[in-house]
Amino acid sequence: MIFELMSKGNLAQLPDKMRVVGLSEMPSPRVLLLLPYNRYLLGTVSLKTYEHWRLGKLGAEDSEEIFLYDEKPKTITLGEVETITIAKEVVDRLKSCLRSQMPPPGEHLPAMLILRGLLKEDALFQDEDFLKNEKAMQESLDKDAPARMAYWAIRFALSRNDYEGVSRIKTWLKIAPDVFEGTLQTPRIWFSLMDLPGRKDIEDMESLAFSVDDLQRMNSQSSRPVVLYSKAGYLILSDFGSEDAAFRIWLYLPIPLWNEMREKRKLSIREIVMATWGYLDGLAADIERSSFGLSASMTGGGGIGKATQQLS
Q1: Residue 169 scores a pLDDT above 50
Q2: What tens digit of pLDDT does each residue of 189-229 get?
Q3: Can you say whether the dihedral through the CA atoms of 201, 206, 209, 212 is positive or negative?
Q4: 221, burial (CB in 10 Å: exposed 0-12, middle 13-18, buried 19+)
Q5: What does the pLDDT look like over 170-179, one tens digit per residue?
Q6: The pTM is what?
Q7: What's the half-sphere exposure (Cβ side, CA atoms, 13 Å) at 127?
Q8: Is the dihedral of CA 195, 247, 91, 76 positive or negative?
Q9: Given CB 3.0 to 4.6 Å as the disulfide criterion, which of 55, 162, 180, 243 pairs with 157?
Q10: Do β-strands 233-240 and 247-253 pair in parallel, antiparallel, or remain unpaired?
Q11: What element of type H or E holds 5?
Q12: Burial of 184 (0-12, 13-18, 19+ CB in 10 A)
């Protein structure tokens, strides 16, 4: 995919097979962005599942590696003094176009074996040959939303060596697999390193009837976790991590979910946090997998088709 950055900051898509003078190597899959002053930004795939972005000048051999982050603008120096800022919407578009040509990260069988251990009573996991068939298994999982969410969350967590993430999925499936089904209100989660979360997160909490004074009062408590009730639901503040890498979790639960887990099932606050966090990991993984080309094609989605729409 080839794009040109226009003067207003939007993208114009160019013919994919056009010849770009001054750029001899055009690997595939790739995303190429033509910039002012004969500069270019080239995104390629490394080791099948990793993005690799390089900034160069047409006709020159040297290029430098740069990093693009989701929902973050990127400022690039062009020449001696000129700079250009690529808007976060454009960054997201470029990354999405590259991901649409990539297979999802992680390995199928390790994730599936863990999932089978959690859902061993399910007949879907009894056939060993079927279990190893990645495409067939994923097509079957598409009919079972919790299993599909758990599979992708485990697979992505394993690819990052995030074993705590795998543990959260296990907690969700073991003690609260059906709690979130059909809920009209989704739980929310925020993270902070400081006493209070960032401004945007605080605004989100304020929209749920928790004021800054409420958050400060929760933070002032010497023992954790702390639970605060409002007419919208419950807010839990809990500490996680080690002394060297400690962070705070702020978890919002609608009243029906709190009543089901705390009052009816008698789960501890930590169990509630871990199970809900695991469920939200599953939701996020289910969304993330649709951005990759292979998973989109397996599920009948339009990953590449969506990625090639014009961005105005």
Answers
A1: yes
A2: 999 988 899 999 999 999 999 999 999 999 998 888 999 99
A3: positive
A4: exposed
A5: 999 999 999 9
A6: 0.79
A7: 9
A8: positive
A9: 162
A10: antiparallel
A11: strand 2-5
A12: exposed
**So what's the pLDDT on residue 270?**
94
Phi and psi for 210 in degrees, rounded to 5?
Answer: -115, 115
The partner residues of 6 in beta bridges, in order of sequence, read: none
User: What pLDDT, in 10s, does the model give residues 64-74?
Assistant: 999 999 889 99
Three-state DSSP class for residue 20: coil
Three-class SS state of 81 = coil
- Long-range pairs, 173-179, Cβ under 8 A, ≥24: 173/118, 173/119, 173/146, 173/278, 174/118, 175/265, 175/267, 175/271, 175/275, 176/261, 176/265, 176/267, 176/275, 176/276, 176/279, 177/146, 178/146, 179/257, 179/260, 179/261, 179/265, 179/275, 179/279
Structure tokens at 3: 């794009």
Q: In this structure, are residues 141 and 110 in contact, taking their beta carbons and an 8 Å threshold?
A: no
